[in-house]
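Archive maintenance. Older records in this collection stored only the sequence; we are now back-filling the structure field for every entry so that each record is complete. The fields below show one back-filled record exactly as it appears after the update. Entries are processed alphabetically, and Thioredoxin domain-containing protein is next in the queue.

ARCHIVE ENTRY
Title: Thioredoxin domain-containing protein
Organism field: Gossypium raimondii
Length field: 248
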Amino acid sequence: MAISLSTSLLPNTFQCNGNHNHRSTRLFPNQPLNFGLKHHRNENKLSTPRNPPVLSAVSGSTGNEDNVDLLDTVKVFDLNGNEIPISDLWKDRKAVVAFARHFGCVFCRKRADYLASKKDVMDKSGAALVLIGPGSIEQAKTFAEQTKFKGEVYADPSHSSYNALRFVSGVTTTFTPKAGLKIIQLYMEGYRQDWKLSFEEDTVKRGGWQQGGILVAGPGKTNILYIHKDKEAGDDPDIEDILKACCS
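Back-filled structure field:
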């Protein structure tokens, strides 16, 4: 079965933007990481915010981590159109939050199933399962209906959460040999790209090159326990790392 990598990954557009600096960091569990340290050019001192988030693990990390603080300004929308501060998703509970490339993406449909297969474990630990996609509320509704995703689905039309977390975006993070092989594997497993969603204006206009990630956080707005930032399309982390962060 011949499958075109160029048509399976994203809409046919050649706009490119985003950060391509791939830096991986692994910290020991429960080791705090201060996101808020800022160096002043002409001063030999550091300033520290009052309540920096605490991170116990970072995988595939890219960009300046103190941008996690920008999550305080991010709003997402539920399927009823209600605007919600993203940090409210884990303010009073623990949550596993998956960030999709876009709602039509075949990789994201696999990721939804991959995480939902462990939802019973998450439920027993009181951890919510959440998926956020960069697109409209209608796109989010269609994704939820098509996939029968067992968790909560939210839309981020402005892509502000992706910008705050500095998820990578670009042609070179989308067209990779590994992603191409995974496309073939997923099609053989029965997964399909939704081309109508993939070619909707929002996805096409922004290039379709966005990568996502997975975050485990809460309870507490600044209690970030784990972040995985996809280095390329289809870059799923080990499920055991996620469960260790959310359920141990």
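Update note: The beta strands are 38-39, 46-47, 57-59, 75-77, 83-85, 94-99, 127-133, 152-155, 213-217, 224-229. The CA atoms of residues 25 and 58 lie 6 Å apart.
Entry marked complete.
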